[in-house]
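User: Just a sanity check before I run the rest of the batch. Below are the structure tokens for the first item. I only need the designed sequence back.
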């Protein structure tokens, strides 16, 4: 009998003054996806920028809306030059 494939896991790295935090979600679990989307939306409202990719090894691109199928998201707080 074949091995059951593992569910895809998405990962959000949240940069902040402490370094960074990680939030992971199972792409097949609607509750985990909802929690990740809530975090994404809250951070965007605070002025964070989001960068993501379908696969971790790919170049990241700007993300304007949460996509639960992204394997990796990086949330970066607004920076002020000076």
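Assistant: Here's the designed sequence for the first item:
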């Amino acid at each position: 009998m074949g091995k059951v494939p593992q569910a895809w896991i998405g990962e959000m790295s949240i940069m902040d003054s402490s370094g960074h935090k990680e939030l992971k979600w199972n792409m097949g679990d609607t509750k985990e996806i909802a929690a990740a989307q809530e975090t994404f939306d809250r951070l965007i409202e605070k002025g964070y920028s989001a960068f993501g990719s379908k696969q971790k090894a790919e170049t990241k691109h700007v993300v304007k809306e949460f996509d639960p199928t992204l394997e990796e998201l990086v949330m970066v707080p607004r920076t002020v030059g000076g």
